[in-house]
Amino acid sequence: MIQCASFLNLVTAGKEGMEVTGGDGKVCLVFPILACYIADYPEQCLVTCAKYGMCPRCMSESLGDRGPGPPCTQQDTLATISNAVAATTSEAQFQRFCKENLVSGGVHCPFWEGFPLCDIHLSITPDILHQLYQGVIKHMITWCSSLMDDEELDHRVSTLPPCFGLRHFKGGWSHLCQISGKECKNMACVLLGCLVGKVPDPVITSYRALLDFIYLAQYPMHDDDSLDYMENALNLFHEHKHILINLGVREYLDVPKFHSMPWFIMWNQSRILVRQITTTWKCLSISISIWPRMAGKPQTSGMRYHK
Predict the structure, then answer these.
(1) How many Cα atoms sit within 13 Å of 149 on the Cβ side?
(2) Is there a contact between 118 and 15 (Cβ–Cβ < 8 Å)?
(3) In sequence order, which residues have a C-beta less than 8 Å from that of residue 260 and are 6 or more positions away?
(4) Is residue 74 in a domain?
C-alpha cells in the first residue's frame, strides 16, 4: 500500500516553499510540484489507482476505441476511495466497490493526495520506450509468428542484405531470450522487409502506419503539421487493423499500449514546440518554480539575480 506520510515534506514544500542553495551559492525559494510521472502500464495503474485493464488517463469502457473517453480526474478518484471507505466494512467490500467504479481498490491513501496543483492522471506522461518500443513493437513482432512460422521468419530476417546503420540479425529472432529496448528499435528498422511478399497488403499498410507513428512520435519538437502526420498514421492503422482479426492474429485489439497512442498527440497538442520527454529523464520529474530571494523576501517582479 502506498502511504502518503512519506511525502508530507514534499507537500509542505510545494505549498510553503523551501530554500535551496544553487551552484552559484545563491539561496532561492523553490516550490516543487509533481509535473509528470513516467512509468510502464502496471505502475501507471498502481500510481493513478486505476483498475488494471483500464486506461489510467480516461474512462473509456473499451480500449479498442479509436479515441480516448472522458478524462479521469483526481477529484473523482479520491471521491471514489473516500466513498468506498465510508460504505464498506471489509477489504473485500472496499475493493469490490472501487472496481465497480474503475478504481483499483488496492490503495487507501494515495501518495499524491494533498499535492498542490497536481492531477495525477494528467501527470502520466506518454513514454516512447515502454509504450511504443516495448509495447507496440513487441506486439507487432509477436504477431509475425502468427503470420508465418518461426523458421521462415528467421530465414527472412537472416537473408536481408546488410545495410549501413542497421543491425543484421544473422541468426534470426527466435533465439533472442530477452528483448531490450535497443533490440526492439533495431528490429523495427527491418520489420517491413521481413513481411513484404508474404502477408496481404492491408497487413503491410497497418504495420507501416504504426511504424510511421512511432518514428513521428520521436521528433524532438512538434508543430501542427507533425501532429497531423501522427493522426493520419493512426487513422490509417485503425482503417486496416481489422485484417489482423480476420487472419486470426488477434481475437481483439483492446490493448492498453495501442489505446494510449492518441495520448501522444493530445499531450503534445497542449505543449506545442516543447521538448519531448523520454525515459532518459528521471522516472519522477519535478517542475520547480523559483523566486530569487532579495532582502529576505521573494522577488516576484522578475527573474534577475542581485548580489
Answers:
(1) 2
(2) no
(3) 41, 55, 57, 126, 131
(4) yes
Best CA proximity match to 244, nearest among 202, 212, 211, 210:
202
pLDDT tens digits, residue range 93-150? 999 999 988 899 888 888 888 888 888 998 888 888 888 888 899 889 888 888 888 8
pLDDT of amino acid 83: 93
Three-point CA angle 233, 239, 242, nearest 5°? 125
Domain match, 143 and 102 both: no
Task: Give the confidence band of 287 by pLDDT, cuts at 50, 70, 90.
Answer: very low
> How far apart (Å, rounded) are the C-alpha atoms in residues 16 and 260?
35
User: Using CA atoms, how far apart are residues 62 and 68, in angstroms rounded to an integer?
Assistant: 9
Is 263 found in the same domain as 133?
yes
Separation CA 183–CA 288 (nearest Å): 35
Neighbours of 248 (CB within 10 A): 9
Q: Which amino acid is at 284?
A: L
Integer Cα distance of 228 and 168 in angstroms: 33
Does residue 298 belong to any structural domain of this protein?
no
Residue that has been written with the C-alpha cell 473523482 in this structure:
76
Residue 148: give the domain boundaries. Answer: 128-269
The residue assigned the cell 533495431 is 186
- 33 phi and psi, to 5 degrees? -130, 135
